[in-house]
Amino acid sequence: MSGRLDFILRANAEYIEEQHRRWSENPRSVPEDWALFFAGVDLGENRPVQGGGQDSAYALVHAYREFGHLVADLDPLTPATASTHPYLDLAAFGLTEADLDREVVAPFNGTFHGTLRQLVEALRQTYCGTLGAEFMDIPDPGQREWLQARMESTRNRPQLADPARVAVLRALLLADGFEQFLHARYTGQKRFSLEGGAALIPMFETLVAGAASMGVEQITIGMPHRGRINFLANIMKKPLENIFSEFESAFAPAEVQGHDDVKYHLGYSTDHETGDGRRIHLNLTYNPSHLEFVNPVVLGAMRARQEMMADTLRDRGVPVLIHGDAAFSGEGIVPETLALAQLPAYQTGGTIHLVINNQVGFTTSPHDSRPTRYPTALARAVDAPVLHVNGDDPEACVRAMSLALDYRMRFQRDVFIDLVCYRKHGHNEMDDPTFTQPVMYQRIAAHTPAARRYAQRLVESGVLDAASLEKLEKELDTEFRAAHRRATSEQAPSVRVAPSGLWRGLEWAGDDWSADTRVPRETLEQVLHRITTLPEDFHPHRKIAQLSTDRRRMFLEDRIDWSLGETLAYGSLLLEGRNVRLNGQDAGRGTFTHRHAVIHDQNRTSWDDGTYIPLQHVADNQATFTVIDSILSEEAVLAYEYGYAGSD
Length: 648
Hints:
Strand order of the largest sheet: 3-9-10-8-7-4-6-5
Number of strands: 14
Shape: globular
Structural class: alpha/beta
Radius of gyration: 29 Å
Number of helices: 22
Low-confidence stretches: 1-11, 43-53, 250-258
Distance between the termini: 60 Å
Largest sheet: 8 strands, mixed
Helix content: 40-55%
């Protein structure tokens, strides 16, 4: 350990040495202050010589990659300042202001050649602007280096042509204009406005177009109720007249849609055609006021869709989860789902997570709702990168989404975006937030929305003129007004959705329970024979052999217990060509000894060797039988299977 530490406190040298030893083995094993200190000092003193003297430039680059996000310009409600951090200060690397014009060589964007001043400016542009990144904890160096290269080569800014910038502006104006139209027409009705987080719309337009260009055929989405109506209108393209009809109390009856719930909980499916003619199916999953409980439902549905598409590479279907900051930090279903999704039986090729960080949960401030700096701290548990982005910089927002999509598609792993924004109104439009957040809402009241700021920016840069901007706004307003007239002057449009996909051709059963569910005895005999017959070289537990004998005797005596009955039912489904997926805690054996979907050879040589699953051998042309011992989770596994079973 370097003698430089002596200046801190010689009396605590042994303690410091121990902290450094622990940090060297695992940077997460020491408090953040120590990790930051060691990252700067240790790297700064021990890098190879460059042109005489110690090369602190390497340590400086490493520090900005790891800690630049701590001083990034992320909060739309806080004026940007040229802030710094002790662990990014030149002095932490043995450098001074006098060194700024010295030529340095550093591992930035390949190899950087230039002055120290130029290097610092490049580092701040990349890691301390309106898009910050947490990624240095990822254990895979290939993933870290890929992210570094992608961010440093562009200084973390998108290269948008003028038409693309106008498209971003249109999406922002569409999002805010829709909310303002609803506010004017339906004052006092709950809609859980997206205002303050309108960047979600251009971000998702970027995602859909980018995914389609990569060959993605399906995106399954889960989100809470905030911003859902806006999302339904502007991303899912649910007809505006249908949405307005719901506000007009002309809502379709429960049996039509299948869910008797409020409009900001409903789901929707659509086939979207991109500008270059590609088609992609979007499915927004129905979600009542359980916030994050939709997460495993979405993953289960996507896993089923991937299997139906034979998408073994998991690059034709992508799950996307939109979270609220307080719910993501607070609900236990979140870590359950994150853990579940990493296991082989549940993997979907990585999820794109977007946290809409309103910096408040109903009335609770972040310091009262989580113990961490960011709501996305759980991402570290699954070694996922986090992109923190200022919701008032729409170009940085679409850049974050493009980077997240590229990462997911390349590495098949989870990735997170922390969209730092605000909530213009209270928890809903009838709630007064100034009771509990007076300072925040004074700032919000005085704040210019992102759409206005970006429009002014494009006008000033000559991308479009004031007349073009006015024309665009009028076109959007005309669209809203025309749809509203149709909703209020005509009969409410039907929203009946016929079963599709695997459910195509079926109708709602209603009260008709007359279906004949009997199975021929010959079929049951075939199943019984195959589930009680083991390979000749297999060595079952003696009680398993007795169980098979007992089952044959019961069947001959027309006596069937519950475990045999359910096994025969599974077998009959398999013979009909219906796949069966049995999942849960210890599902392979079952809770009691009369259930054994998986049988273990008593002479096996290893834990995962020597197993036999009788229901996989009922017939040569049978359907697939899958049995899974799940993690010790109840909600997440159940919700995952609900999504899997209900997927179309």
